Amino acid sequence: MNDTDRSIFFNYDTLVSKISSSLSSKSQIKYGLLIGRNISFSLSDRIHSLIYHLLGIKNIEYLIYDTKEDSCNESWDIKKIISLLGKDNLIGASITTPYKTINYPNPSRLTVKLSDSFINLSLTNEKLYSVNTLYKYQSRICSTSTDLLGLEYSLKESGYREGLKSFTNIIILGSGGMSQAVVDYIKKHTTKTKICFILRSIPSFIDSTDRSLIGKGFYPLSSQSVEEILNLVSTSEQTLILNTLLKDVDTSWCFSPITKLNKLKKQRICFMDLNYKKDLNSILEEERSFFNLEGVSFIDGMDMLIAQAIYSEIIWNKLKISLKEFEDLLDNIKLRLV
C-alpha cells in the first residue's frame, strides 16, 4: 500500500460523507476504522489491509481518522464515533492515543482459549482501564482491549512462555492505560510479581503503601532511577522493563545503567518497547548494544501491534483461525511491512 492509496481523514464530516456515500449507493464495501490524534504515521491501515488480503476477505476498507484538526476546534467528541458505529457498513473501530482511557459503553474483558485447535475469544462484562477496540454485539456498541493479548503473545513468542507472569519484577515507564491494564492483570493472576514505575507523577490507580511495589514504588524519569531499582533486584530474578511512553519520548537514558549493572551483576532483563520500529536501521545504537549483553533481551512493539490487530479482526469478522494460522498470518504481515 502506497501513501497515495491510504484513506486518512482529518475532518469528521468528511469521514461521515465517505461512509454514508457507500450506504446510499448500496455498495458492498464495509469499513474498519482507527481513531486517534497525530497518527498519520500509523501502520494500522497497512496491517488490516494485509489481514484482508492474506485471508481472502473481500470488500472491507480500513480508514484512519486523525482528530488533530477537529480536536483543536472542539468539533469532535467520542460520542459521534459511537453514533457512527450504528451504521451497518462500519464493522468496528480501533482506538489509540489519547482516547484509550475514556469510559466507553459496555466494557468487556477479552480472554483467549484454544478449542478444537481454533482460537476462541471470550468476552466478559468487566470494568477496563484501557480500551482499543469497539465492536457490535446484538445491536449494542461494546468495548474491549486486544492490547494485553497482543503483549502476552509477543512475550511468549520471545521465549517468555508465561507472558507477564514470567517476571519477578516489572518496571513500567509511564502511567497510561496500558500501564493500568498490566497492573490489573498482575494483581488478578499472580502474587509473585512486584511492580514499580518510572514516571513524571504518581498515578491515582496505585496505592503507594502497596506491598507489591518495588522499593519506593515510584521514581522520576532518569537513568539514576533505573540504576537504583536494579540494585534492589536479585541476580536470580527475571525483570521486565516495559516502555509505555509515547513514541516521541526518548528512553535512551535507560540503556547505560542496564549495561553498567549487567557487567557487575549479570541480571536477567527484558526491555520491551511498546512502540515499534519499521526496520532495524531505526533502532538506536544504545538499543543495539542490548543484543550483545548476556542475559538481556530487547523486544519492540511490532509483534504486539500486529497480534492485537488480528484479534480485533477475529471479533469484527467472527473469524475462525487456528493458532498455526494466526502465527503464519502474523509472520507474513511482518515480512511485508519491512
List the helices and strands and how they pair.
Blueprint: E1 8-9, H1 12-24, E2 30-36, H2 44-55, E3 60-66, H3 78-84, E4 90-95, E5 108-115, E6 118-125, E7 133-137, E8 140-144, H4 147-157, E9 169-173, H5 177-189, E10 194-198, E11 213-219, H6 223-230, E12 238-243, H7 255-265, E13 268-273, H8 285-288, E14 296-299, H9 302-317, H10 323-337
Parallel strand pairs: 1-3, 2-3, 2-4, 9-10, 9-12, 10-11, 12-13, 13-14
Antiparallel strand pairs: 4-7, 5-6, 7-8
Helix pairs in contact: 2-9, 2-10, 4-9, 6-7, 9-10
What keyword list fits this structure?
2 domains, Rossmann fold, 6-stranded mixed beta sheet, 10 helices, 6-stranded parallel beta sheet, alpha/beta, 338 residues, 14 strands
Question: How would you describe this protein?
Answer:
The protein has 338 residues and is of the alpha/beta class. The chain folds into 2 domains: 3-145 and 303-337, Leucine Dehydrogenase, chain A, domain 1 (Rossmann fold); 160-300, NAD(P)-binding Rossmann-like Domain (Rossmann fold, 3-Layer(aba) Sandwich), CATH 3.40.50.720. It contains 10 helices and 14 strands. The chain has helices spanning 12-24, 44-55, 78-84, 147-157, 177-189, 223-230, 255-265, 285-288, 302-317, 323-337; strands spanning 8-9, 30-36, 60-66, 90-95, 108-115, 118-125, 133-137, 140-144, 169-173, 194-198, 213-219, 238-243, 268-273, 296-299. The strands form 3 sheets. A 6-stranded mixed beta sheet has the order 1-3-2-4-7-8. The chain has a 6-stranded parallel beta sheet with strand order 11-10-9-12-13-14, with helices on one face. The chain has a two-stranded antiparallel sheet with strand order 5-6. Helix 2 packs across helix 9, helix 4 (147-157) packs across helix 9 (302-317) and helix 9 packs across helix 10. The longest helix has 16 residues, at 302-317. The protein is globular and about 70 Å long. The two termini are 12 Å apart.
